[in-house]
Amino acid sequence: MSEAWLIVGLGNPGPRYESTRHNVGQMVVDELAARRGEGFRAHKANARVVETWLRPGAAKLILAKPNSFMNVSGGPVAGLAQFYGVDPERVVVVHDELDIPFDTIKLKTGGGHGGHNGVRDVAKALGTPDFPRVRVGIGRPIGRQDAADWVLDPFGATERKNLPILVGDAADAVEQLVEEGLLAAQQKHHAPRLS
What we know:
The chain is an alpha/beta fold. The chain has one domain: Peptidyl-tRNA hydrolase (Rossmann fold). Helix content is 36%, strand content 21%. The protein has helices at 24-35, 74-84, 117-126, 147-151, 157-180, 182-189, and strands at residues 5-9, 41-43, 47-53, 60-66, 91-97, 105-109, 132-137. Strands 2-3-4-1-5-7-6 form a seven-stranded mixed sheet, with helices on both faces.
């Protein structure tokens, strides 16, 4: 199998969803592409991709954004993994996480989907839940707002001020995961932030 890494940012397609909380995974993949001066192109697996490198001489990265809606992300992800010959343990899924406070990043491999339908569909399509995840905290809504509505809302004004830092930190976490492994990335990014 390939030594490449497939880095998938989950989200929903189209301008209506671009700046919503549910699309923070795609924002992170956009940041990884921007760092390398690369633009996405259409792929037959119903996704947009960038083929690039972690850095010259290092691991190959396939950055991807499915064109499907979040809840049916699995087909494009599995299609890309098959096309590029990438095993599930090298498929890094970057996604929003309600159960983690905003401005927090957690990494893990495997486990449940925590009610995240995009992650559920990817696990089903790959035939295993054992793939690395970079979980970007968006927090839960305050009050009675339904979580399904919350994730489809744009980030609030205060959140938007810190969003570039959060997206940058999540992109750093992806790069560290690829280069140094899950444990090293967890040790750095799970530590409490110093203000």
